[in-house]
Structures are given as C-alpha cells and as structure tokens.
Amino acid sequence: MNIADLRKSYEKAELSESASHADPLRQFDQWLQEAIQSEVPEPNAMTVATVGADLRPTTRVVLIKGYDERGIVWYTNYQSQKGRQLAGNPYAALQFHWVELERVVRIEGLVEKVSPEESDAYFHSRPLDSRIGAWASPQSEVIESRAVLVANAAKYGAQFLLNPPRPPHWGGYRLKPDNWQFWQGRKSRLHDRLRYALQPDGRWLRERLAP
C-alpha cells in the first residue's frame, strides 16, 4: 500500500468553547482522566521537545508523574541530552497523543527543576530495580554494549543493597505552561483546535485556531 493513501476520518467527538473549561489545567485533567478510563495504551506518555545550543530540536517520550497549578512534572537524568539542553535553554514543549480518542494536547513553557525533597520522595517510591537503574545508566552516553549496563546494575545493587539513595544527577523537572493547545479530530479535516495563552495578568485567553 502507498503510505500516502492511508487515511482516517475523525468522527468520535467535538471540542467547543461552550463545552470546554476556561482553565486549561481543568481541561487537561478531564481529557487525561478520560484517556485513563478509556484504557488507551500508556495515557501518561508524552513527547518532550527541547532545543540544544546548535538550535536543532530533539524529542523523546517520557511519562508524566504529576501535574497541578504549578505545572507538569517528569523525572530523568539531569546529565542526559535533554538535561544538558534544558540547562542551556530552559524552554520546552510537551505533546500527548491519545490516538484512540482522536485527541492531541500540546503544552509549552519554562522548565525548572523540582525541589530536592520532591525528587527524593518520588525516587524512593520507585521499584528497587528502577532505583538501581538510575545509577547504572549513564543516560545518552555512548556505551560499548548492554553488558556495561548489566555490570553497572550488579555493582550498584551490591553497593546499595535494598536502599539506594537518589543519585545527585537524577531528579524532576516541572514545565510551567504559558501556552496550551487542545486538538480534537473532526470529519473532513475540519478539526477543533483551541489555544489557551497566558496573559500578563495571569488570566488565560482561549481562542479557536484553524486546524
């Protein structure tokens, strides 16, 4: 089959101004909860886009671990490629794509590290093998083979036993949104697309964009 011939008509739902929340965080919460209740695969998976000093954008998929009025939280290795890029340019974009619901959420804003206390609390809630893995993987670095990871895991497992501390190079980031977009697929490619832009007075301006 010619890939250009692959098409789908989006007809499951609609997104109107009257039926959407004035607060984008409430709209996001509603859609995320609906994705979870619909049992879509990994509803908590999001793409994180960052830009390096060479001005080349890069993306990767991570898992959201928290959200509230302060922003969207995920955890990672601060020495990874995204960590290095955020150190030089602290702005990023997130995207959720819930294919089965024909929905996309895009979020942009400034990124900051969460507090050490928040990182400690989440780290110690993780399974033991994940905590050891945070020590074992020099994320984004070139390694000779998988054997390096296995050897590192064995080394740190023997060193820390059942109580590995949080590595100093590992912790959380929080994106503080200043722009949200909610996209709902519609028939004939006339999709619904609402943007929420943060205003100087702290209010959210909701606008409809052409798809």
Commentary on this structure:
The protein is of the alpha+beta class. It folds into two domains: 11-124 and 168-208, Roll (Pnp Oxidase, Chain A); 127-165, no CATH class. The chain is 26% helix and 33% strand. Strands 1, 2, 3, 4, 5, 6, 7, 8 and 9 form a nine-stranded antiparallel sheet that branches. The chain is globular and about 60 Å long. The protein starts with 23 loop residues before the first helix and ends with a strand. The relative contact order is 0.19. The model has no long low-confidence stretch (mean pLDDT 97).
Brief description of this entry?
The protein is α+β, with helices and mostly antiparallel strands and 211 residues long.
Features:
Pnp Oxidase, Chain A; 211 residues; 5 helices; 26% helix; 33% strand; alpha+beta
